[in-house]
Design a protein that fits this description.
alpha/beta; globular; 259 residues; eight-stranded parallel beta barrel
Length: 259
Amino acid sequence: MLSKRLIVCLDVRNGRLTKGVKFTGNEDIGDPVESARLYYRHGVDEVVFYDITASAEGRGIFLDVVERVASEIFIPFSVGGGIASVADMRRVLNAGAEKISVNSAAVANPALISEGAEAFGSQAIVVGMDVLAVPPTPDIPSGYEIVVHGGRKRTGLDAIAWAKRCEELGAGELCVNSIDADGTRNGYELKLTRTIADAVGIPVIASGGAGHPGHLCDVLTTGHASAALVASIVHYGQYSIRQCKEQMEAAGIKTRMSW
């Protein structure tokens, strides 16, 4: 059995760590470099860095922050936001990231996924999916729609169909974020995560809604996710990385214990 991963998400705006609810009301909660260092020392498996306004503002990612984070941690480090070309990917990887996360740019140009996989390997390409629950229609039969530009623009794309296409194009991993659950701490959107995880053969990271370690256990078992991404519950000190992993272990979920 493969180990399940615990991943911390660092949403960054203007070089500062930020957090909101359902993609709105973001507040400054600290320095991303210090936070990354702390989570690394406490045993998190991976760190994901999102420059959350880069795509909407039409600019590149803050490479100086990427470089500073990469100098402090020695675990897999994924970076997303404002990455729209293979050249952008190369710059981020050269700044110290191990993985690239593409979202809005991949929807606009799906070939970006295959070009990135060809250049750097599928293991380096993560496709982020921001998903909104909607009434089912012939175009969106699953009732889950892909939304881009930080939740600002609906696409009309069915999330399940898009997940399958991303896998076909060479994505090595999908990060599925429920906009409806994001920041609420009411639990992950289990149906969404499970449906996508069952539809593809690549790992699925569940994102959006963790309120306590039990929610992680739910999405890693019932939700069929390969990894659980957390933010608010650790950023605000409600739970530690160790507490999350100990509850995962108590639930019979194989995970890496580093203490």
